[in-house]
Specification:
This protein is of the alpha/beta class and about 160 residues long. Helix content is about 25%, strand content about 25%.
């Protein structure tokens, strides 16, 4: 008889493991439909798109920067760069994202990466009692509170828009 984890993609297993290791309840839900965008996820979950946490990878000085932003927000990279004291923040290429997260664009999670990433957390997300974030692929999401998300990612809380 196959194990329950045999059909779960490795990136999702990494997220589940990271949640458990961090002492957070494993709330990963796997859907039959793709949920690669905040709007698609909000529709499937029946929640406000602003409660969806997009995990966006940017490149700063050759390294990765993970910005956890509300699905209702467009990140103002100039504002974030000014707050961080860096010259320029650029959206990373799909290859760069995969290299640093082990996850594909559209399925990037806040956790479960090969190495910890410098992380920024959109402070507007604290308006929602429950957040939903990608869980490592285009079919998976998990729920978490703002405080738990800040704790497990070690994120710096900033205004990103």
């Amino acid at each position: 008889m196959p194990k329950a984890t045999e059909n779960i993609p490795a990136p999702v297993l990494n997220v589940k493991s990271a949640l458990t290791t961090a002492g957070v309840e494993d709330t990963v839900r796997i859907f039959e439909t793709h949920v690669p965008t905040a709007a698609a996820a909000a529709t499937v979950l029946g929640c406000d798109v602003a409660a969806i946490t997009n995990s966006l990878i940017f490149e700063v000085d050759g390294g990765p920067l993970l910005i956890l932003a509300s699905g209702a927000a467009k990140v103002d990279t100039a504002l974030v760069a000014t707050q961080l004291g860096t010259a320029k923040i650029r959206r990373a290429t799909p290859d760069f994202v995969l290299q640093h997260t082990g996850q594909e664009v559209g399925g990037v999670a806040p956790v479960g990466h090969p190495r910890p990433l410098r992380t920024i957390l959109d402070d507007s997300l604290q308006e929602h009692p429950l957040l939903w974030a990608g869980a490592g692929d285009h079919h998976s999401m998990f729920s978490i509170t703002y405080r738990e998300l800040a704790r497990i990612t070690g994120a710096e809380e900033l205004r990103v828009r």
